[in-house]
Design goal:
Layout: E1 2-7, E2 27-28, E3 31-32, H1 33-43, E4 48-53, H2 57-64, E5 73-78, H3 85-90, H4 93-96, E6 101-105, E7 108-110, H5 115-123, E8 128-134, E9 142-146, E10 152-157, E11 166-174, H6 177-184, H7 195-204, E12 209-213, E13 218-220, H8 224-237, E14 247-249, E15 252-253, E16 257-259, E17 264-266, E18 269-270, E19 274-276, E20 281-283, E21 286-287, E22 291-293, E23 298-300, E24 303-305, E25 308-309, E26 314-316, E27 322-323, E28 326-327, E29 332-334
Helix pairs in contact: 6-7
Amino acid sequence: MKGLILSGGKGTRLYPLTYTNAKQLIPVANKPVLVRVIESIRDAGVDEIGIVIGQTGPQIQELIGDGSKQGVKITYIPQLSPDGLAHAVKISRDFLGDDRFVMFLGDNVIQGGIGQLISDFAKSDWNSQIVLKEVENPTAYGVAKLRPDGSIEQLIEKPKNPPSNLALVGIYMFDPHIWEAVNSIKPSKRGELEITDAIQWLVDAGHRVFPHVHKGWWIDTGKPTDMLEANSLVLEELIPAVAAGVTVENSEIDRRVTVEKGAKIINSVVRGPTIIGENTVIENSYIGPFTSIYHDVRIQNCEIERSIVLENSSLADIGTRMQDSLVGRHATVRRTDSKPKSLKMNIGDHSNLWVV
């Protein structure tokens, strides 16, 4: 079996963080989401993985490389325009051949991995398997209607009257029958080849399509609130550790905190679940639960809680507690004592600023 990761989206809902980098490379608990997806597929026993890339392909290739760091072999598949998930499958034919494969959206974070899922599909005579998750608001998702035998009868996109609360998660498995499906469907109203249409084609053609209902948590990290929630959930699952060579001076660090090599924590309080990245300096500050500070960050005289701070940023003397926030790469956040007192900022398109 092979793996296929779709990582070509622009990530507009995460602007301005994603103006200059791929949304799949934003870290959750200090590990890029895309790396988590690769590791999930690898841990399920699949080591040949294709990654469909778009405009942010160069950044993805620079970080992931040939996959050897993750113990897999990576093949990159350029998608010149965002023409839909089924189109991404279609252009991956040369890589996938006639092998069964698992397809994973590159911005999804899922609890517990996919090992059992792949094992079930490998042992079955099913032509496709899709992952579903019970949700509270099925009208916002693609929803599955099941037959009495548990197989898929119909997929309905954002139904006004949902036949179930089982939403498509973004993880799929296919056998070679998918090629006839993606070559038979037509573009949707939005001009894309939809993977739901391809799966529905399989169902209507009499092929065996069954669900796997995921019982753990699942997050699509497409929005800032989702990213913060995914970060919190993953932090709770980390096994805390303080790396060798970490400097801790006159500070309180509780047992749920992970500190990576080269970090310095001075005159500060850090409460977990939290992770402090490599070569980051925390000084005269409070870092509260559900916070991820990436590498080479400097924080002085600040209070931060339930936030994500990306690499090479500097925060100092903010004066009020910062929470539920995303701070991008190479960002500077600070307060000065100069007169007259005022707000002074450089804010990118689609930014959000709250002053309290």
